[in-house]
Amino acid sequence: MTAETPVTAEDDDGSGGKMPLLDHLIELRSRLLKSLVAVAIAFSVCLYFARPIFGILVRPLLAAGQGKLIYTQLFEAFFVEIKVALFAAMMIAFPVIANQLWKFVAPGLYRKEKRALLPFLFATPVLFTIGACFAYFVTVPLALKFLLGYQGNIGGVTQEALPSVGNYLSFIMQFIMAFGIAFLLPILLMLIERSGLVTREQLVSARRYMIVAAFGIAAVATPPDVLSQFLLAVPLILLYELSLFAIWFTQRRRNKTGAETAPVEPLEEA
């Protein structure tokens, strides 16, 4: 088999030949149903524990000195519990969803492509979790301390913060999702570099534009205060630099492996 010959499923792992379109659609439906069942089961469990989960989410608010949340609409507290349960269910069911996605895509990939994509698949939940934890333990407490600092007596009038449960849930979910997705930047850059869409040299030359883009993304993804935007923009810039180093390291490793596996030309006899 030459390098240009496409590999079918039978050539790759002996599991069979190419699948017709209808079989692909049936397979896709099966994977989607399994993912939805996983989300539904996780949602049912998380709905039962919605209040304890929300209790974990409000700890940064309590640590910032705000011990009161209100709701101004009768159904607001109910929908907050639904959102909390759905948010937690998606996090819990993500490994199942990712596994079903991989099982759908993997049969159409070459062995080399599978080996290249698997590390990114495992790194995605890890980096997202790191970003979410950074938001929960570092960014949200700092932002709350800054925003709640506007309470006090102003011209003889008491200014007091009375956040609603829905408003606070949207606030902390926005932070967790923004930082979780932002921490996936190394995976995105390494994938597009591996696919040949960009080179490391192009990414290095675009560094100044990335700094501007980081603050633009932070302005959109975080609440409209300077501290929150700064706390997201700086990690984005650092992650960009980390991505450049990771690309350099993987390129060096690929070049080294290619040099070791390259055929050696026989010496001509004198």
UniProtKB/TrEMBL annotation:
Name listed for the protein in its UniProt record: Sec-independent protein translocase protein TatC
Subcellular localization is given as: Cell membrane; Membrane
Q: Which UniProt keywords apply?
A: Cell membrane, Membrane, Protein transport, Translocation, Transmembrane, Transmembrane helix, Transport
Q: Which residues cross the membrane?
A: 36-58, 78-97, 117-138, 171-192, 204-221, 227-249
Species this chain originates from: Sphingopyxis panaciterrulae
**Cellular component terms, GO, for this chain's entry?**
TAT protein transport complex
Report the InterPro entries cross-referenced here. TatC (IPR002033)
Q: Name one GO molecular function term.
A: proton motive force dependent protein transmembrane transporter activity
